[in-house]
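During the reporting period the student researcher (J.K.) took over the structure-prediction task from the postdoctoral fellow and processed the backlog of single-chain submissions. One of the processed entries is reproduced below for the supervisory committee.
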Amino acid sequence: MIEALGNIGDFLGGIGVVITLIYLAGQVRQNTRSVRISAFQTAQRDIADKLDGLSHDPELIRIFFDGNHNFESLSKEDRRRYAIFMTGWLRRYETLLYQTHLGNIDRAQWAGQLSEIRTAFEYPGARAWWGQAKGSFNRDLREFVEGDLLAPDHRTPPPNKAIEADA
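J.K. obtained the following structure tokens:
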């Protein structure tokens, strides 16, 4: 009889462990989802803040568009400002790519960011700047830009000239 009660206790204890593991798995899934949402929101906010800063500085807007077309034609000071802006802007994508590789950002969300970064690298000035600056970025971003963005089939004119016309 005591042995039977012991077996029942072991059985109930096993059920308790299974229920606990199911609960913990749900908590891990919920936490993973929260981390992913937070990582993406942070990256999006950082990119938006960088672009918002650009939109509030008419001189930087001029430098940005002039530099995109011909980086070398900018004055030394304007090349520095262009380089600082582009480095800061691209650092945000470096982080976004890193978070994607870690699995914290869904690949579909990363894919949604590609049109913006791809458009920037379709300009000859951005490519000229990249040629000088690429050594300061991590290997993953360098491989992404060199392999995916600067590949010959991606060097078509930017699809949206309307933004440029207003600048």
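The committee noted the following: The first helix runs from residue 2 to 55.
J.K. will present the remaining backlog at the next meeting.
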